[in-house]
Amino acid sequence: MTHHDDLDHERDTALQRRLRDLPRERRVPADGWTRLQAALPVRAADGGPTAKVIPLRRRPYARWSLPAGAALAASLALYWVLPVPLQPAPPPVPTVLQQQAAVMTDAYREAMAALPPVDAPEWRPALVELDRGADQIRDALQQSPRSRHLLEQLQRTYALRLELTRQATLSASGLPT
Amino acid sequence: MFDTLTPERDTAAPAAYNEQAVVRAAVAGDVAAYEQLYRQHAPRLFAVLWRLCGGQQARAEDALQEAFLQAWKALPAFRMESSLGTWLHRLGVNAALMDLRAQGRHDHDSLEDSDRELPGMGVDDPCAGTERDLERALARLPPRARAVLVLHDIEGWKHHEIAEQLQMAVGTSKAQLHRARGLLRARLGDMT
Fold it and tell me: Using CA of residue B48, residue B53, residue B59, residue B62, what is the dihedral sign?
């Protein structure tokens, strides 16, 4: 080992000591827990996170596929998110997530506009419910503009709404769904 | 940006705090119990994430939120054989690194931008050598080198653990550490 190596080693050790002396904790944001609590999905009795929803078998649209039903259950978790007091004032400048949500909403509306009108009354309650859920998620994003969880919820809700609209259209036309 | 550091405090949990019992309650859906876990572990985790994110408060906050959200979902599968703190750290570090990668598509401070050297303080900075300036110099390291240095020299991770988390070779982790230390020393004017 050369003198230069020794010097480097000493410097590394000294630097490492200084680094390890840095504070080990940092004050968390005052609203951190509130924001987190608002995003936590309700846990099912078996310990797994899920939404508290009306059992699918009671719904008139119970012929959905199981994955679609599960996705709806996830999207409806928001109904449990909203009653929690949210943050007071939204920031004036949109965050990256809000911009992504706006782009996604535009694309969703374009896709919906391209689909034929749905004339299937039995599907309407589900579609209305999903629209209301999407509205509420967008409102929640205004209150929690950095919540990636909400953005993902919105994405899933849009995807499910599009899929159900397609299925409803096919159903109304007499084609198998 | 650097003015909210908390002083070192006793991190030992209160005598009545039984982490296993609190975890079990949280697994059963008790949000108040989960808040206890959050209050217990968040300050420690936030310090790590804040440094990994180069002192960018909003990103560190997002990573903290994401980590505790993931932890809530994954808690039923957590086995108390390992430390909850270590497990949370893994989730948090992963969230911070994911965020840095994702943000790389939008701005300059990405994890992939490993060769860029951010503007640092001059070596003749009259304040160099203080804790505040060490944090500042650390924040201005290139993201990948900074991540390796934070995890190795501050958090005490092994190179193989860092390599696995950052998806790099062990040799790369060592090289990044050497580079990070050299850059940091240069920026601090070798006052270490």
Answer: negative
Q: In the prediction, which pLDDT does A77 show?
A: 42
**CATH code, B115-192:** 1.10.10.10
Nearest to A26 among B27, B46, B72 (CB): B46
Domain B11-113 of CATH type 1.10.1740.10: yes
* Per-residue pLDDT tens over the stretch B30-78: 999 999 999 999 999 999 999 999 999 998 999 999 999 999 999 998 8
Residues 6+ apart with CB under 8 A from B114: B142, B143, B144, B145, B176
Indicate whether A22 belongs to any domain: no
Are A36 and B68 in contact (CB < 8 Å)? Answer: yes
ipTM here: 0.78
A19, A27, A49 ranked by CB distance to B153: nearest = A19
Range of the domain at A156: 31-172
Whether A18 and chain B come into contact, CB under 8 Å, resolves to: yes
Token readout for B163 is 């390599």
> Chain A residue with minimal CA distance to B188?
A15
